[in-house]
Amino acid sequence: MEKSKISELFRKAIHISNAIIPLGYMYIFQDKIDMIIILSFFLIFCFFVEIARKNNYLVSIIFTRYFSFMLRENEKKGALTGATWVFVGALFTVLLIPPPFSILALLFLSIGDTFSAIIGIQFPFIRLGQKTLSGSLAGFIACVFIGLIIDISVSNDILFFGAFMAMFIEIIPTTFDDNVTIPIFSGFSMYCFNMIA
Q1: Bridge partner residues of 128 (DSSP)
Q2: 126: left (phi over 0), alpha (psi -120 to 50) or beta
């Protein structure tokens, strides 16, 4: 397997651990303000790390040694890492979208996006730019599955619609990082669907 594919698979394996954010919001830090404070803290920490890896030689060496194998080329050149974008997306999702839609949308990001990438890399069927239809279908199924197995109060119609919208925004080319677009777009879509249903 190509080195870039191995790097992306490892990156997505870690990406699935981001499910701790919505699960933490659902079961532990259920107050919205508490969750915003926690996510803000982690986001500020990420920005300090981003600044340090660019401006501090020692931090740069350590970061390169231990994390460069899973960084994308633009991240190696100084762009914000995916981890920082995850906290940007999570913070604005929690800030703008009420639960349970924000929780589901963040699960779609961690679970759906991960399966979309893994299946898309391993079984690329019908390429659409840099994405694949097989990956998006796998992501959709994963989103629906996680939505069905957790105890969350949304109808199946909303769940299926949100999962579809998550993978729709994932597959279309945008200039924004999908760690931000997936949860905000899918969460807002579910919220609006619920309002008019």
Answers
A1: 131
A2: left
At a CB cut-off of 8 Å and minimum separation 6, what does 21 contact? 39, 86, 90, 106, 110
Expressed in percent and rounded to 5, the helix, strand and coil fractions of the chain are: 80, 0, 20
Closest CA to 106 of 87, 82, 132, 84: 87
What is the chain's alpha carbon radius of gyration, rounded to the nearest angstrom?
A: 17
Could you tell me the pLDDT band of residue 64, with boundaries at 50, 70 and 90? confident
How many CB atoms are closer than 10 A to CB 69? 12
- ∠157-160-162 over CA atoms, to 5°? 105
Question: Is the Cβ–Cβ distance between 156 and 143 less than 8 Å?
Answer: no
pLDDT digits (tens, 9 = 90+) for 124-182: 888 877 788 999 999 999 999 999 999 888 999 999 999 999 999 999 888 889 999 99
Cα(8)–Cα(194) distance, integer angstroms: 35
Residue for token pair 């669907």: 193
* Cα 63–chain centre separation: 22
